[in-house]
Amino acid sequence: MDWKFRQSKADGAAAGAAMTEILDALLVGVVVLDDTDRPVLANAAAREMGLIRQRQGAEEEAHTIVRTLAGQVRRGGVTRVVELDLPRLTHGDPLGVNVRAVSLDGGRVAIEATDVTEAHRVARVRRDFVANVSHELKTPVGALQLLAEALLDATDKDPAAAIRFAERIKHESARLGRLVSELLELSRLQGAEPLPEPEPVDVDKIVVEVLDRTKTPGSAKHIDVVSHGPHGLVVYGNENQLVTAVVNLVENAIAYSPESTTVSITTSVSAGDETGHEAGYIEIAVADQGIGIEPRDIDRIFERFYRADRARSRATGGTGLGLAIVKHIATNHGGRVDVVSSVGVGSTFTLRLPARPAEAAMALPPSVEIGGTP
């Protein structure tokens, strides 16, 4: 009899441990309160959300909001589903939690909580994106409408004015075309899976293509676009995307630089940080002698439609999407893009990409030129 009791007790302990393991594996928070609001069961997710908090010693208590909800359920005797904003255990925005509270026998209340913070963030980003797109499209479309009306009035009366209006229509149409093209590109990049079978891409080819594509906008402002770095570097990924990323960086540098300055493209092999992380990565840095970026704008310049200087950006025909595209291309290639800037001195954007180890080891000294203006 004593053996059976011990065996039953051991089985019960094992079952309890298994139940605890299962509950802690759940992403939803689960809490059961007794009739005095004392937690009799709580899983790891509930603690992480802050539904249950540690008091002095080993005792736990339910959050005030949870106790209030439990009292309402007991009095009403019906299941309640509410959305709560809970303060985070660490600093930051409140945690959005969808809570379902159910009345049990003996005055107990079971609570299930789902973290909806990320879902809300995504919904907010989508709303902001639609609002931004609508605003950005409204400007060139409105301009085209006004210019078309002015062109009709000036066709017979003032041929010179008609030509000016036609040129403006051409300019606004090109701007609208760039905006739509970049919106489509960004949408495609955001929906793309990581590159399944990256191909080796010659960094020299990327730089040569970028120099060719940016020759015209550079010449228009008497800006020299030069390149420095070793030959033979190779990264893995999609060549067209990587060219697009570097072109966007160079065009951005040209747009925000005064005339008769220099924009440089420098390629190198990263030595990594103090722990050796990212050692062997290929770096493509684009540096300008432009207006620089205010510290308050640094963390936001890769956001869609964000412009540190809206007036200048519109004057240069910028869409506010170029750097967002660069960021997504870098991410899709397992890399990242960083920026260092000093107001009135200039900015350096560095694209860091995983390298082919054998090629990185064979890299020539950085004094070797790949092309461009010496």
Automatic annotation (TrEMBL):
Taxonomy, superkingdom: Bacteria
Annotated GO CC locations: plasma membrane
A single GO BP: cellular response to phosphate starvation
EC number of the protein: 2.7.13.3
UniProt-annotated location(s): Cell membrane
Pfam families registered for this protein in UniProt: HATPase_c, HisKA
InterPro entries according to UniProt: BphY/WalK/GraS-like, HATPase_C_sf, HATPase_dom, His_kinase_dom, HisK_dim/P_dom, HisK_dim/P_sf, Sig_transdc_His_kin-like_C
Keyword Phosphoprotein: yes
A molecular-function term among this protein's GO annotations: phosphoprotein phosphatase activity
Keywords: ATP-binding, Cell membrane, Kinase, Membrane, Nucleotide-binding, Phosphoprotein, Transferase, Two-component regulatory system
CDD domains: HATPase (cd00075), HisKA (cd00082)
Domain Histidine kinase per the UniProt entry, residue ranges: 132-357
Protein known as: Sensor-like histidine kinase SenX3
